[in-house]
Specification:
- The protein has one domain.
- Helix content is 70%, strand content 0%.
- It contains twelve helices and no strands.
- It has helices at residues 4-22, 25-52, 61-82, 88-94, 96-101, 107-114, 121-137, 144-170, 179-193, 202-211, 219-226, 242-263.
- The relative contact order is 0.14.
Length: 269
């Protein structure tokens, strides 16, 4: 468990960065609009599909909106807090990571608090809007368990995506400037999670469910909430496993990160 002094240092860092960004209100407002616009563009792709078909991956538009919203909300929250791990290849190449290792705070804590960008809340806000509209259009048989699942899904989804960011940062200790390679798994999984997993061929469906758990953050909770059967190999009860999947993903990625840090021998040059 982190010491109170360390937690206080993290809170101070996060607070100072948030206040610094909020002090430039016009710039922050434009950044929020730009971030939300990225979500609008992605949702536009989904809307165009349903303009031509009534069902896509076994889902009607309101259910597909729920998948999109849950996946995007989870990714936006993870990007807000763990997106700075994308900078690990640059920090290694510039030798900045060596300096960070000399500081008294843990390396992972420094990276997470190094850049908390409030503009990413724009995309999260748009995802919340789509979530509300989709839920209003659906006739969900609400039970206490389903209410809890809906409340937990964005948080657990954020943990899953944060674990992917962490794993992507960890493998940089073995790769040479491998940022573009790992983006295929972090941002690629975000894109894959925004649509019904039923549209994927079986090999991709297995990969984005049991190797990279993208289907768990949006699609599987949706079919569990709506009581749908799910495609072959993905029964709806898997949606209830999301919290456990998030815990396992985080601990696997954290273990990989620790091995990578021990393996690291300096930026060279």
């Amino acid at each position: 468990m982190a010491e109170p002094g360390v937690l206080h240092a993290y809170r101070a860092l996060l607070g100072s960065r948030a206040r610094a960004q909020a002090s430039y209100r016009a710039s922050l407002a434009l950044d929020l609009i730009g971030s939300a616009a990225a979500g609008v563009v992605e949702f536009g792709e989904l809307y165009v599909i349903f303009h031509n078909v009534d069902l896509f991956g076994g889902l009607e538009l309101p259910a597909a909106m729920l998948v999109f919203a849950l996946a995007n909300l989870g990714f936006s929250l993870a990007d807000l807090f763990a997106g700075n791990l994308d900078q690990v290849p640059t920090l290694i190449r510039m030798g900045t990571l060596d300096v960070m290792l000399l500081r008294p705070l843990p390396l992972l804590g420094q990276l997470i608090t190094g850049e908390v960008t409030l503009r990413r809340l724009g995309r999260a806000s748009f995802a919340v809007l789509i979530l509300v509209v989709g839920l209003l259009a659906l006739d969900v048989d609400w039970t206490p368990g389903r209410v809890l699942l809906l409340a937990v899904t964005p948080i657990a989804g954020a943990v899953v995506f944060a674990a992917l960011f962490l794993a992507a940062g960890a493998v940089q200790f073995w790769l040479v400037d491998g940022g573009e390679f790992t983006h295929a798994f972090t941002y690629g999984s975000s894109y894959a999670s925004s649509f019904s997993a039923a549209v994927m061929p079986l090999p991709l469906r297995v990969f984005f469910t049991f190797v990279i758990p993208a289907a768990f953050v949006g699609y599987l909770p949706t079919v569990a909430l709506l009581g749908l059967p799910g495609p072959p190999g993905l029964p709806s009860w898997l949606g209830w496993c999301l919290p456990g999947v998030a815990v396992v993903a985080w601990y696997v990625s954290l273990g990989l990160w620790r091995v990578g840090v021990r393996h690291y021998q300096g930026g060279g040059g």
